[in-house]
Every structure is written in C-alpha cells, then in structure tokens.
Design brief:
Elements lengths: L10 E5 L4 H12 L3 E6 L10 E5 L5 H11 L9 E4 L14 H29 L2 E6 L11 H21 L4 E8 L28 H11 L11 E4 L8
Parallel strand pairs: 1-2, 1-4, 2-3, 4-5, 5-6, 6-7
C-alpha cells in the first residue's frame, strides 16, 4: 500500500500572487499550513507569518534569472510545490492582432514557466519529491478572438506533459488546471473587450477559491498518481451541446 507522507510545513512558490486565482491559491495554502513565497510584479497582497513576497516582472528574463540566483542559496525557500498562476489576456480578431501583446502573453505564460521549471524541477528531482501546477485555460483548444492567448495557454499543456514524462520516476507530478471564465480582475479588464467572457452553463462564473482547492489537492501527497493532466474546471462548458 502506498504511504502518503508529507513533512509540514512545506514551501510553495506561487506566481501571480497579488490577485485573482494566484491570491486565492496563496490564501488556501496558508490556511492549510504551508509556507508560501509569492512572486508578482505588484506588492504583497497579504501579511502572514508564513508568507514571503518578492516583486518580479515575470516578462523580464533578466529579472527572473536574478530572482532565481538570489534563491539558490536559500534552503528555507526551497519549494516542494511551484504554481504558475500569473497571467494576462489581450483579445483581438484577425486583422487586429498585436504582435507586442502576443509576445507579452507568451513571456508571462510560457517563458516564465520555462525559466522557473528549468531551475526548480532539477532541484525537485534531487530531492525526489515535488509538485508543479500550471494554470491554463479552457480556451487552450482555440477560440475566436483569442488566438494569441489560446496559443500561449496551449503551450502550457505541451510543456506539462513533456516535463511530467521527464520527472515521473522522481516522485514529482506536473499538471495543468484549465478554468473557464473565472471571477477575477482580469475578467473585467478592458483589454479583452473584443471577446466577452462566456458564462458557464452552471449559470455563474468559476470562483477562484474552487481553483485554489484543486491546486491544494494536486500539491498534496494524495495526488501523487495524477500527473501530465489538463484538468478543466469549466462549470459544464465542456459538455456536449
């Protein structure tokens, strides 16, 4: 029989920690006794004895690299779990696609995830333990008016499955959670005015706390057999019409 053992408190790194889904994950893990290092370009969202915060522009390779170098010698912040929740959305239809906006989404969603995974997953392999969760999107399969955003989120699924295959023998899991329209500040942002959010069939938006609770489960010892998966929290949006 498998033995589920987790030394408490564990440390988790959370990107996008200042608002939305990232903040909900921070709060959920703190409530469950984790130590949390929040990573965001904005200021710390909470004050808690088990919370540390570092301001980093995740679209800046140099800034992310410097941050990682500063953490290399700090064993107290070595993460058991890493959650990449930082995100942004720019919507546009063909004929109006913005190259700079597309690059910015790619930098935050994909480039930052890659830089952090490249540093953290080998350290988890050395420790023979770890969890990684990437926050994707239900539209990663493609949606009119959101091609650039969808492409950057689809890349996370491919990265997840590739990395999961590399580290599966070292007791590390890598998964994606893909929510439908979620009640966050990003949902109300004017940069997505060309593609309005679609209310899920359950008749309400997804609550960030619902995503956070799944993250907490995937980071727990009981989820050690779940890896390489893209898990939707869609409120029925994926059901057959």
């Amino acid at each position: 029989m498998s033995q589920f053992v987790q030394t408490a408190p564990q440390t988790a790194w959370i990107t996008g920690a200042s608002s939305g889904i990232g903040l909900a994950i921070v709060q959920a893990l703190l409530d469950k006794g984790w130590r949390v290092l929040g990573i965001d370009k904005n200021k710390a969202p909470v004050t808690h004895e088990n919370y540390m915060h570092v301001e980093v522009d995740l679209s800046d390779v140099s800034a992310v690299t410097t941050f990682l170098q500063s953490q290399t010698q700090t064993s107290s912040t070595q993460p058991f779990a890493f959650v990449h929740a930082a995100g942004l959305m720019h919507t546009a239809s063909l004929g109006s696609l913005d190259t700079a906006a597309g690059a910015h989404m790619w930098q935050v969603h994909v480039q930052a995830a890659t830089l952090l995974a490249n540093a953290l997953l080998p350290r988890m392999q050395a420790a023979k333990a770890g969890r990684m969760v990437l926050i994707g999107s239900r539209v990663s399969g493609g949606m009119a008016g959101r091609s650039q955003y969808a492409a950057s989120k689809a890349a996370l699924v491919s990265l997840c499955r590739s990395w999961a295959a590399e580290v599966i023998a070292d007791s590390i899991t890598v998964n994606v959670i893909s929510p439908a329209a979620t009640d966050t500040p990003m949902l109300k942002s004017g940069v997505r005015s060309s593609s309005a959010p679609k209310l899920p069939p359950i008749g309400r938006l997804i609550d960030p706390a619902e995503v956070a609770e799944l993250v907490a489960y995937l980071c727990s010892p009981h989820a050690s057999a779940i890896t390489g998966q893209d898990i939707a929290i869609c409120g029925g949006s994926s059901l057959p019409k």
